[in-house]
Amino acid sequence: MNILIADDEQDIRNLVKISLEENGYTVFTAQNGKEAWDILTAEDIHLAILDVMMPLMDGFNLLRKIREHSTIPVIFLTARNDDMDKVLGLGLGADDYIAKPFSNAELVARVGAQLRRNNEYLSPKKKSDANITYGNLSIDKEKCCAFKNGELIELGAKEYKLLLQFMEHPERVFTKRQLYQAVWGEEYYFDDNTVMVHISRIRNRIEDDPQNPKYLKTIRGIGYKLHYTGEKP
């Protein structure tokens, strides 16, 4: 697996590179956002680890460009750890957000977890289980694509996985913790803001009026469920 590390601190790049290579990964490094983008367009990168504050192109803008073309897992590794930065990063489509200083062992574990989950969703499925339809929504599990009225819905990797979780279990109520554990795979760590940001992004894609949703319903004090209240197709 090919991993990209983009950070303007050479010591951080070297430290993470050594840790990942010891675990069998091939590592590419970049000292700024432009150099990272050049690598992403030239190499087959399976996961990117980005700093936020980088010269030429910061991590947020780099992530925006990545999400225009790819759903590879992206982890922010940054000294900027306030809630607004975290919400912004996750809202733009990041899959994880780790604050500096960090544990090498934890970072390697999170990289492995992101790659495993991504591979699971990209692995071939049986034809009989490949498509799900609910209301005017449908999912092609082989292509990892979602559609509304037959038109492609632009979703990030985590948004797609969340929608798939709902589509596979319509009418079932999920707590935020259950959704986080199912999609992010963290058994003990939980961040409800992360779930809320991604739910909001999904609503903006699938609802005619996100303020009056016909699909993703909020169950106050509990969580969310997929319950279609519009006209049947």
What features would you describe in this structure?
The protein is of the alpha/beta class and 233 residues long. It folds into two domains: 121 residues, Response regulator (Rossmann fold, 3-Layer(aba) Sandwich), CATH 3.40.50.2300; 100 residues, Arc Repressor Mutant, subunit A (Orthogonal Bundle). Helices cover 41% and strands 21% of the residues. The chain is built from eight helices and twelve strands. The strands form three sheets. Strands 2-1-3-4-5 form a five-stranded parallel sheet, with helices on both faces. It has a four-stranded antiparallel sheet with strand order 6-7-8-9, covered by helices on one side. It has a three-stranded antiparallel sheet with strand order 10-12-11. β11 and β12 form a beta hairpin. α2 packs parallel to α3, α6 crosses α7 and α7 packs across α8. The longest helix has 19 residues. The N and C termini lie far apart (43 Å).
Short description:
With 233 residues, the chain is an alpha/beta fold. The protein has helices spanning 10-22, 33-42, 59-67, 83-91, 104-122, 157-168, 176-184, 192-206; strands at 2-6, 26-30, 47-50, 74-78, 96-99, 131-134, 137-140, 145-148, 151-153, 173-175, 216-219, 223-226. Strand 7 (137-140) and strand 8 (145-148) form a beta hairpin.
Keywords:
alpha/beta; Rossmann fold; elongated
